[in-house]
Automatic annotation (TrEMBL):
The active site is at residues 34, 174. Its cofactor is Fe(2+); Mn(2+); a divalent metal cation; Co(2+). One of its GO terms (molecular function) is metal ion binding. It comes from Lactiplantibacillus fabifermentans DSM 21115. The lineage of its organism: Bacteria, Bacillati, Bacillota, Bacilli, Lactobacillales. This is Ribulose-phosphate 3-epimerase. InterPro entries: Aldolase_TIM, Ribul_P_3_epim, Ribul_P_3_epim-like, RibuloseP-bd_barrel. One of its GO terms (cellular component) is cytoplasm.
């Protein structure tokens, strides 16, 4: 069964506490927080003050997906704000190895993220270092986009590398996840699924979390 990480990008920002506690009660496995700077992606969203505000409200793992230029400037502040896991894009910095080291030094779990157009060989050397790899299944920047089917072979290729080398990182997928696409990802080796609009744009978010789990059971 896949682990489910609801993305609050699609939550009601005027009722974030309610929307976070709702998914926690519905057995979400972690909470996905999309951080955007208007440069790496053409959108703005949350910052470390949002993470600090949510930290005392939930015991869910806070999974922060940084879509910002040179994320190494801020990873320590995100960890101090309460992030448990911090994801940095390989495309966002000249110093990805350093960024991942800083995350670990700050006491958080380290994740490397790859855009749809980025081949896996860009992150192969990082795989022994990371706790999680995030394969983007849409181009980053916005919720509610269509899942890119071509990413399924990339997930399978990453899982093959993981098995061959005995690595134990989680494989997370993000973008366009629903009860149909989640099964393709899970069958290819994904262990964690982010879902924003599928969960929060529903009248029954708890049922949607259940549906994602049942689809991969
Ligand atoms: O990183 C993201 C966008 O860049 C979001 O996590 C992702 O898009 C979730 O939204 P949805 O499930 O609606 O596609
Ligand atoms: Fe995300």
């Amino acid at each position: 069964m896949i682990k489910v990480a609801p993305s609050i990008l699609s939550a009601d920002f005027a009722n974030l506490q309610r929307d976070v506690q709702m998914v926690e009660q519905a057995c979400a496995d972690s909470l996905h927080i999309d951080v955007m700077d208007g440069q790496f992606v053409p959108n703005l969203s949350f910052g470390m003050s949002t993470v600090a505000a949510l930290r005392p409200l939930t015991s869910l793992t806070l999974d922060c997906h940084l879509m910002i230029v040179d994320p190494e400037r801020f990873v320590e502040q995100f960890a101090q704000a309460g992030a448990d896991l911090i994801g940095v894009h390989v495309e966002s910095t000249q110093h990805i190895y350093h960024a991942l080291q800083l995350i670990k030094q700050a006491g958080a779990k380290a994740e490397v993220v790859v855009n749809p157009g980025t081949p896996l060989n860009m992150i192969e050397g990082l795989l022994p270092l990371v706790d999680q790899v995030l394969i983007m299944t849409v181009n980053p920047g916005f919720g509610g986009q269509h899942f890119l089917d071509a990413m399924v072979t990339k997930i399978a290729a990453l899982d093959a590398l993981k098995q061959k080398n005995g690595y134990d990182f989680d494989i997370e997928v993000d973008g366009g996840v629903n009860d149909v696409t989640v099964k393709k990802c899970y069958d290819a080796g994904a262990t964690v699924a982010v879902a924003g609009s599928y969960i929060y744009d529903s009248d029954d978010p708890a049922q949607r979390i259940e549906d994602l789990k049942v689809a991969t059971n």
